[in-house]
Predict the structure.
Amino acid sequence: MAAPAERLAHISDTALWVAAYRAEESERADALFHDPFARRLAGERGFRLLDGMPKGRQTAWPMVVRTVLMDRMVLDAVDRGADLVLNLAAGLDARPYRLALPAALRWVEVDLPGMIDNKSSVLAAERPVCRLERIAADLSDAAVRRSLLADLARGAGRALVITEGLLIYLDEVNVAALADELAAAGRYREWIADLVSPGLLKRLQSTWGKEVGAAGAPFRFAPEKGPAFFADHGWRPAEVHGSFHAAARLKRLPWFLSLIAKIFPDPTDWKPRRVWGGVVRFERL
């Protein structure tokens, strides 16, 4: 008998849920990426959480596409000379184990103590392909965050920052503060993040808002100005990829959405009401 579905109870549970998506994609015959650690990291609970999310499996494609796009952007940034990758709120990401990264690359993961302990335990017998460090810290503590970012910057020449699945849970003030702090540190040259429009935020709130809100992690950040929001905080968008049309190209949309993607071209202008989500690579101004 299948185990009953579960609901999110804490913000860290979102990492289990997303790891389940990565596991299921990795096990497809036509998988777009292979994460051999995702099923272990998700654990049985990750799949019960996925089963408990409204339209959980029908909406796997944005998570899959996000992984594909970010994988490629990370590798490109390393090719451009990044010597430090800083993954903030890293969750259960396994890129330091599964991507073709240089052995000398320094990769630092930051997350809450419970997440760090759990991940370290699950992957204790595995060997990362690069120099991996984990730091337990609460990034909502501004003083801790500023000190951490400054300390890590001093040891880097050209650093890449990843915030995957993080910004949507922050308010605009805290996103602006993070952007300012990263820009001020000097060594953080590129930043990869996923963003949603206000139009998509409303849809996500109607679909998953009750679940994430009950876990103490309501969806918040959807800037009216889109990627241009970050220009006032030291960052310019260098690449912007909408998930919907990327999913169509990667053959991950349901058939009826694929038809819509063929009829309507990938938009090049920003409209807050448009239902848009995607991945952006920023460069420091």
Residues 61-79 form the longest helix (19 residues). The chain has a mean pLDDT of 96.
